[in-house]
Fold this sequence. Notes:
alpha/beta; 32% strand; single chain; Rossmann fold
Amino acid sequence: METWLTENQTKNMRLSxxxxxxxxxxxxxxxxxxxVDTLEYGRMLVLDGAIQTTERDEFTYHEMIxxxxxxxxxxxxxxxxxxxxxxxxxRELLKHPSIEEIDHVxxxxxxxxxxxxxxxxLSSGLDDPRVNSLVTDGIKHVESVENRYDIIIVDxxxxxxxxxxxxxxxxxxxxxxxxxxxxxxxAQTESPFSEADLLVKAYRNIAQVxxxxxxxxxxxxxxxSGLWSFTCGSKGPDPAKAPEKVEFATKxxxxxxHRAAFTLPPFVQELLEG
Length: 274
Ligand code: SPD
């Protein structure tokens, strides 16, 4: 008998993956947490029915959410990652020698535990001495910090329930205050196809707070529509500024892709301007 896991990606669209095995299933204090082994995309983390990451395509998302701000900033030292309990974003940030400290703020410690156990290729960096693991609410964390980080990355799940606040002006205002001079905020901002309203809302809210705001795109095959957006608010550096070359191995990110990712198709540009 075949077993399939289906994500309702929109009201009218579903994505199903055939699974070999359910590795983990629990209701945490915050959400339903599932890890399955799929035939097509390897192991996959699913929270409240929404695919968060898979072993096969995670590199596109994690490289683009991490390396774009880390290379746009001239010499980042202190970084805060909000969410990202699987560890993929932290793993990529650790490739930057200038980064001395990463505050990894994840509200649900069970996501970290499950990722350590079932997704070691993503979570491998979580024990690095440069990483401070804070199992707490990222929204409250940025309220309590001032002038500290060179980069804040919001590697959140979709904005439902308390996560809605991660797309609101008060949160972005606190991020602005928590960033040092010349700091950058990057947030995952959903799909311009299936969640265009959320992208537009995040873009406009970030633009209310930061002097410079830019959107960039990447392909994440298992996310709704496969085309994903990130929005960057900057206190100074141009987020589209890419390095001459990259000294470590990547599978998606290159300086050329960094620059090109900010060239938006007209339909996305129109959404943002509309
Ligand atoms: N629709 C799912 C969006 C999830 C974005 N964040 C995933 C976390 C991966 N580190």
